[in-house]
Amino acid sequence: MATYCIGDIHGEYEKYLDMLDIIDFSDEDTLFVIGDVIDRGHGGISILKDMMMRPNVIPIIGNHEYMAVSCLKFLLEEVTDEGIDRLATEIHAGLLEWINVGGMPTMQAFRDLPADERLDIIDYLEEFELFAEVSCGGNDYVLVHAGISNFDPSYDMDEYDISELIFESPDYDEVYFPDKYLVTGHLPTFAVGGDEYNGKIYRMNNHIAIDCGCSIGGRLGAICLDSGEEFYVE
Which helix (H) or strand (E) holds 59? Predict the structure, then answer.
């Protein structure tokens, strides 16, 4: 019975399955997925469908899921004058932004789903948590996708809104929680700690950064929160 954390899979379905095998993931374990399951790679929808079948997988929203939801919901709407007006304004801009950051493979896979499965995917994405606070192995963890913008040590986590948790990486030189570890993805670790951390989990100043650049030539990384053990898929 163990608790794991993984993030930024970005559509790499086979790497996701390999990681589940490597950690020997069972029904007694818990896996937190801290965002950016989809986009770039072609297996994002397949990963979501697998996660949906596992009640012990806890999804936390990333910026890619956030961008996808409104666009996918619009694609289900009837073409009306009102819908066209929306497409010409905010949806159009959001759709272009999503495509520019790698949303096309997800959109194509979503299009190929039966109608009922499309609705299931949207419902599931809308159930993603904003963050998680976990205690295990004698340590306390705060899990978010990107970081905590406008950080204030007097705030509880539920006082932050979604935009403050999914877009901006934290200051990795600053200790946010003296008595907790802040676990994040979003920014590949080579951009956090330099070439020394290329494809490797970064730990410093009570930060644990786990985006090891899976979709851009790096590795898929995971950490066991009980023991601190690291796991990688090439």
Answer: strand 57-59
Kind of pairing between the strands at 57-59 and 30-33: parallel
pTM: 0.94
Q: Which two tokens stand for residue 18?
A: 């390999």
Instruction: Break the chain into its structural domains and give their ranges.
Output: 3-61+127-233, 65-125
Length, in residues, of the chain: 234
Nearest to 204 by CA among 172, 231, 229: 172
What is the full per-residue pLDDT of the chain (234 aa) written as tens digits?
Answer: 999 999 999 999 999 999 999 999 999 999 999 999 999 999 999 999 999 999 999 999 999 999 999 889 888 875 455 655 655 566 678 888 999 999 999 999 999 999 999 999 999 999 999 999 999 999 999 999 999 999 999 999 999 999 999 999 999 999 999 999 999 999 999 999 999 999 999 999 999 999 999 999 999 999 999 999 999 999
155 Cβ neighbours under 8 A, 6+ residues apart: none
| DSSP designation for 17 | H
3-state secondary structure of 214: helix
**How would CATH label the architecture of 3-61+127-233?**
4-Layer Sandwich (3.60)
Beta bridge partners of 3: 30
